[in-house]
Amino acid sequence: MDSIIFELIVFLLLILLAGFLEAAEISLSSYGENKIDELREQNHKLTPYFEKIIENEESFFGSVQIVYVFSIISATLLGFHLLLSLGLFANIARIFFTGNPFLLAFILLLILFPPIVVIFCVLIPKAIGFKYADELALRSVRALLLLSKIFKLPVLALTGISNFLLKPIKERTNFSQTRPSEDEILDMISDGVKSGAIDEKEQEIIENILEFNDLKANEVMVPRTEMVAVDLNEDEEQILKEILNSGHSLVPAFEETPDNIVGVIHTKDFMKKYIMQKEISIKNLLRPAYFIPETKLISEVLKEMQQIGERLAIVTDEYGGTEGVITLEDVLEEIVGEIKDKSKTEVSDFSKLPDGTFCILGSMDIDDFNETFNFKLPESDEYNTIAGFIADRTGKILNVGESFKNKELHFELIKKTRQKMVQFKVYSERENFGVANKEQNEGKSES
Questions:
Q1: Which of 275, 269, 267 is nearest to 244 (CA)?
Q2: Closest to 91 measured CA to CA, from 110, 104, 108
Q3: By the 8 A CB rule, do 326 and 301 touch?
Q4: 110 burial class (0-12, 13-18, 19+ CB within 10 angstroms)?
Q5: In order of start, what are the domains of the chain with their CATH numbers?
Q6: Phi, psi at residue 73, to the nearest 5°?
Q7: 79, 154, 219, 414: which has the highest count of C-beta atoms within 10 A?
Q8: What's the pLDDT band for 155 if we cut at 50, 70, 90?
Q9: From CA 48, how far away is CA 36, in angstroms rounded?
Q10: 381: helix, coil or strand?
């Protein structure tokens, strides 16, 4: 009887050990570089321990997983022995299982043990690990670091054997804590919105940040055909009038052609001279322009703008020609969403016509079109807008009245300015074609 009680205590301790390791691993895996930096700033005495974990992730997480598996297997075997030790199983086995107590004990183990492991070694520890992550990490880091030193060689041996077996498929593995993929992060955010932990605006900002690192300057810029710039070869009075009417604080200046940008005029410099009633020389007001290639990532553009104090960049193609301009506001809008400007008249990307068809701007973004109309127009690095998509597919600039068909979707050009496809009439053979979300009926606006 004493031996059964002893085995039961050991069984419970093994289950508790497995649960503790699960909770501790979750809490410690949350300690990345940012949290460790916070500990450094606080001069926390445990900072060196967390730094060692980052340096030896393989050994640390491998040791935790080895001991966790060992605890579960040991508890399983001990549980089986405990069931056999209870004498009443022999009598029950004679009646129902042809006198085989091993079979009865095995079946009971299969029924009882999985729920015990799931509840006490997975679900409860996981909840504790997330809720008390900081406190648990600080309390367990020393013990688990010692554990990692003890099991360093077994971890290396197991990793080596695994990688040897994986050679035929040219793959490698390790015990290091895996980081969640972007899709997994998006799934967690969606779950957070459903549970109410994250609101929809926060979800939008987080998703924008994840997409931010992939965006290039030519996807965010104001294109050359829409940018506001002044020609220094014009009459000075006309230039001054254009600057005043632009409504912009920064205006690029060029000579003869927009491909020859020679500087940027800061409106405040001009206004200062104007208010003081001093003679204004436009060329003397010019400040150096900041040029970037169209393929430059906007995450890098933002970093450079912060470092050099620029708020406007001229986007150029591979031949040095001007593609457009990008402002600090354009970059920030990719993170926080559109920043409304009361001084600017908003133009809807689309509107519904009386006959049930839609009028859309050629400058409407492909992503916005797909989201608004619940459609799947193909995306490409070669274009960003509806006009760009149609030009890419047809190989030409349509004339007014010409149409383009993509599957069941029809685009008819109804307005053109020089070589710019401005507005399209859009209709579909699909009966339920229309705005996917009623809240979007007002349209997405562009300044």
A1: 267
A2: 104
A3: yes
A4: exposed
A5: 2-169 (no CATH), 183-212 (no CATH), 217-336 (3.10.580.10), 347-446 (3.30.465.10)
A6: -65, -45
A7: 79
A8: confident
A9: 9
A10: coil
Tokens of 109: 């183990």
What pLDDT digit, counting tens, does each position of 220-241 carry? 888 888 888 999 988 878 888 8
Asked if 335 contacts 212 with a C-beta cutoff of 8 angstroms, the reply is: yes
Positive or negative torsion for Cα 242, 245, 246, 250: positive
Cα–Cα distances in angstroms (integers) from residue 74 to residues 12, 158, 175, 380, in the given order: 11, 19, 21, 55
Q: Is 97 helix (H, G, I), strand (E, B) or coil?
A: coil
Residue 324 has a pLDDT of 92
Would you call 57 helix, strand, or coil by DSSP? helix
- Contact at 8 Å (CB) between 252 and 330? no
Confidence class for position 128, pLDDT limits 50, 70, 90: very high
Taking the alpha carbons at both ends of the chain, their separation in whole angstroms is 83
Residue 444: what pLDDT? Answer: 40
Contact 221, 326 (CB under 8 A): yes
Q: Contact 374/432 with Cβ under 8 angstroms?
A: no
- Which two tokens mark 268? 């405040």
Q: What is the pLDDT of residues 389-412, one digit of tens each?
A: 999 898 888 888 899 988 888 899
Per residue in 64-109, pLDDT (tens digit) is 999 999 999 999 999 888 877 765 555 555 545 555 667 777 888 8
CA angle 279, 281, 285 (to 5 degrees): 120
Contact 222, 324 (CB under 8 A): yes
Q: Per-residue DSSP letters for 285-305?
A: HEE---EEETTSBHHHHHHHH
Q: Supply 296's token pair.
A: 């430059």
